Automatic annotation (TrEMBL):
Organism: Secundilactobacillus kimchicus JCM 15530
Name under which the protein is recorded: Pyridine nucleotide-disulfide oxidoreductase
Cofactors required: FAD
All copies of domain FAD/NAD(P)-binding, residue ranges: 6-314
Sites where the protein binds FAD: 51, 113, 299
Length: 442
């Protein structure tokens, strides 16, 4: 091997990098990571961890609301304190992750990197070389290409607001829109969601999405379907969203939640011949790009799997196994679950109800209100739908409930390992728990 600075050099240091980079260094490889912002990337600093800390008081308030008459007294959410608590929870994470990296000998290089040849990334004019490069630059928020787009903000700005705007417009109705509409509404903002078409959260079971929308509507959130947003304007401290045939909405803050796009520009991919498209970097089944010694990991990959943290972790660990010689096999993705953290939540994994109905697979529905364990805290909204193949093995599941995330998560082994009835019978669960309640239905 030529005399490179590193065996493996990663561009970007989110979950697509560090979960694999740490054990890779432990395996004896010389590893470097380049990061222009906070170590840890989106998930800990401005994604999952930040968001779920803001969600925790909302979930608690919903439980209190259901138990009204048993749990009494006036409660309210203090947005300023919610954001302070979020910051206190996430502030230590970059140092903690940096410590894990440097503790095993990974070199952290701070700055913006750009590939200059197949073995070199330049940071602030300084070339750094490696045998293998991994591009893990993630996604960034889309900004609508309309007049006044600079007046709108992104999810990171929202989670840093110390004062909650009285009137909030959210453009788009995907994950970020629905989760942030839930939080902002619970904390007292007047929220309007401007939908691109007539369906929110398109990748989730639509009757469950309707349950969440109906509940948010009862709580005061306004959903405007088919609102083609054409302009943002400012007058004094207020902002106007122009949509449809010249309709307008006046608000105090605008959240552009119209999706996230891959960070593929201005990092030298064209220079070295790495092929990408609008969905991200194209890779083969070894996560190898069009240039043999350059790989990609995490959200920046163009892929079918959901662009989520567990996927990024699985990919970075796979690359570690590949680079350290533990495997030479193609990546074999497991069933990857996803959840939207609304209240109630919607979670899913495996074959969808829609596909099952088309294929003739069996779908079993259980209403949340009929589950005695959910009655202990008076949950009534939602249902679980389980999809079985001809051998009655679980191949898909989706649930809408306050505990949908945990209910779906606990079922993963049944799907991933194709457990049959006798194997399922060997698993004894703690009782009473969400897990026991979910497995009982198999
Ligand atoms: C608001 C929000 C909430 C989310 N909630 C969830 C959730 O609940 N559950 C879930 O599973 N997923 C969630 N996600 C998605 C999750 O955060 C991502 O899937 C995950 O962070 C992807 O990791 P990654 O390493 O691929 O990319 P990132 O974490 O984005 O890391 C990429 C890194 O590359 C750096 N970088 C980019 N270009 C350069 C360059 N030229 N030089 C140096 N560094 C560079 C960036 O600064 C960044 O740190 C959420 C995302 C958002 C935005
Ligand atoms: N719970 C979670 O796991 C979670 C939470 C937040 C974010 N994420 C990740 O972050 C990604 C980005 O989230 P997101 O909510 O920004 O994206 P998304 O893809 O979930 O939703 C984008 C929304 O914007 C709408 N849209 C697209 N173009 C538009 C236009 N021109 N005008 C108006 N609306 C338009 C779409 O119809 C959709 O409703 C997700 O795909 C996911 O990978 C995950």
């Amino acid at each position: 091997m030529a005399d490179y600075d590193y065996d493996v050099l990663y561009l970007g240091c989110g979950h697509g990098t560090f979960d694999g980079a740490i054990p890779l260094a432990q395996s004896g490889k010389k590893v470097g990571v380049i990061e222009s912002r906070l170590i840890g990337g989106t998930c800990p600093n401005r994604g999952c961890n930040a968001k779920i800390t803001l969600d925790a008081p909302v979930k608690l308030t919903r439980a209190k609301e259901r138990l009204e008459g048993i749990v009494n007294g006036d409660w309210s959410l203090d947005w300023g304190q919610m954001v302070a608590q979020k910051q206190a929870v996430i502030d230590p994470l970059p140092d903690m992750i940096s410590g894990l990296l440097t503790g095993v000998g990974v070199q952290i290089i701070t700055g913006r990197g750009e590939l200059t040849d197949a073995h070199t990334i330049e940071v602030d004019g300084k070339p750094i070389t490696a045998d293998k490069l991994v591009i893990a630059t993630g996604l960034r928020p889309n900004k609508l290409a309309i007049p006044g787009t600079e007046l709108a903000h992104d999810s990171e700005d929202f989670m840093n607001l110390t004062t909650l705007p009285k009137r909030l417009a959210i453009v788009g109705s995907g994950y970020i829109s629905m989760e942030f509409a839930t939080m902002a509404n619970a904390a007292g903002a007047a929220v309007t969601v401007l939908m691109h078409g007539d369906r929110a959260l398109r990748q989730f079971h639509q009757p469950f999405v309707e349950t969440v929308i109906d509940d948010l509507t009862k709580r005061g959130v306004t959903f405007v379907k088919n609102a083609e947003v054409s302009e943002f304007a400012q007058s004094g401290d207020a902002y106007t969203v122009i949509y449809g045939d010249g309709q307008s909405l006046t608000v105090d803050w605008i959240l552009d939640a119209t999706g996230r796009i891959p960070n593929v520009e201005n990092i030298g991919l064209e220079t070295v011949g790495v092929v990408f498209n609008e969905h991200g970097i194209e890779v083969n089944n070894h996560l190898q790009t069009s240039v043999a010694n350059i790989y990609a990991s995490g959200d920046v990959i163009d892929k079918q799997q959901p662009k989520l943290t567990p996927t990024a972790i699985f990919e970075s660990v796979y690359l570690m196994q590949l680079f350290s010689g533990q495997t030479d096999q193609p990546i074999d993705y497991p069933a990857i679950p996803s959840t939207v953290f609304t209240s109630p939540r919607i979670a899913k994994v495996g074959e969808s109800v829609e596909t099952a109905e088309k294929k003739g697979d069996k779908v079993v529905t259980n209403q949340i209100k009929d589950d005695w364990y959910r009655q202990v805290d008076r949950q009534t909204l939602g249902a679980s739908k389980l999809v079985f193949d001809a051998d009655h093995k679980l191949i898909g599941a989706t649930e809408c409930s306050e505990e949908a995330d945990n209910a779906i998560d606990t079922l993963l082994p049944a799907i991933e390992f194709g457990l049959d009835a006798s194997q399922i019978g060997r698993i004894v669960h703690l009782f009473p728990t969400i897990a026991a309640s979910a497995w009982e239905k198999l």
